[in-house]
Amino acid sequence: MARAPANPKAFPTLALETVLIQRVNGPVCGVDEAGRGPWAGPVSAAAVILNPDDLPPGIDDSKVLTEKRRAALEPEIKARAVAWGVGFASVEEIEDLNILHATGLAMCRAVEQLAVQPAAALVDGNYRFRLPCEIQTVVGGDGLSLSIAAASILAKTARDRLMIDLDAQYPGYGFARHKGYNAPIHQAALKTLGPCPAHRRGWSPIKALLEQI
């Protein structure tokens, strides 16, 4: 008996954007973040208003794309989008506000960077951050909405570049390789060197190391 073919992967579309644009009668951006989980570095966010008549081919959730593919798509998205913006919240702001509210701050900064202010935003996840426009949350949005997927790419590539810069500023931790996430090389460097100013000192693994110093 022949097996039924596996369901092909569903790619993000502009379906959610189309419905929301009709309801709010104005531009809609997609918003996503990168870097909520790492032990070091800022959290980043991006907002993108796509041009439905000039879409770069291959936009998808940044997590399923290779680093090379993300790097190729970044300038294409920026060149063809109606507007795009990137924002960060620093390690200090993460410590002061907590990671959830720091993420919202980075998202707000990204939306404020848009050359065209949106009437509404499609935001990845289920938390309604305070943004300067109407919000519609979308769980798994980076796999459903092209605008959110585009934002996920810009947020990821922007943060990765910053982590490469931090690797040069604080050598020995391997930031350029693991981007501040938990990794054996990162754990080993922390035990040898201790935390640096780029580390999130409120994170339990970093806090535990500081208590031993």
TrEMBL record:
GO molecular function, one term: manganese ion binding
EC nos: 3.1.26.4
Gene Ontology BP terms: DNA replication, removal of RNA primer; mismatch repair
Domain RNase H type-2: 26-213
UniProt KW Cell inner membrane keyword: no
Keyword rRNA-binding set for record: no
Gene Ontology annotations for the cellular component aspect, listed alphabetically: cytoplasm; ribonuclease H2 complex
Reactions that this protein is recorded to catalyse: Endonucleolytic cleavage to 5'-phosphomonoester
Compartment annotation: Cytoplasm
Function: Endonuclease that specifically degrades the RNA of RNA-DNA hybrids.
Stated family: Belongs to the RNase HII family.
NCBIfam families named among the record's database cross-references: PRK00015.1-3
Protein name: Ribonuclease HII
Taxonomic placement: Bacteria, Pseudomonadati, Pseudomonadota, Alphaproteobacteria, Caulobacterales
